[in-house]
Amino acid sequence: MLPKSIRDALGLLPGTKVDISPYGAGVQVVPAGRTARLVEENGVLVSAGNTPVDDDILFGLIDAGRK
Questions:
Q1: What is the pTM for the complete model shown?
Q2: DSSP per residue over 1-66, as a string?
Q3: What tens digit of pLDDT does each residue of 39-51 get?
Q4: What is the number of structural domains in the chain?
């Protein structure tokens, strides 16, 4: 079970599938099936995803990673 703050930061809803893998002395949990599609723009690779990421989501993920 993941704390609600982490579930919210990752956008996990009841029934959301996740991938769990070993990571250092712990585990890494990521939403399953999410992939980043990269495209080249002006010689630089950028994400072509359509999932909006605002500051609250980004800082929530950073904070969750620090705990």
A1: 0.42
A2: ---HHHHHHHT--TT--EEEEEETTEEEEEETT----EEEETTEEEE-------HHHHHHHHHHHH
A3: 899 999 888 877 7
A4: 1
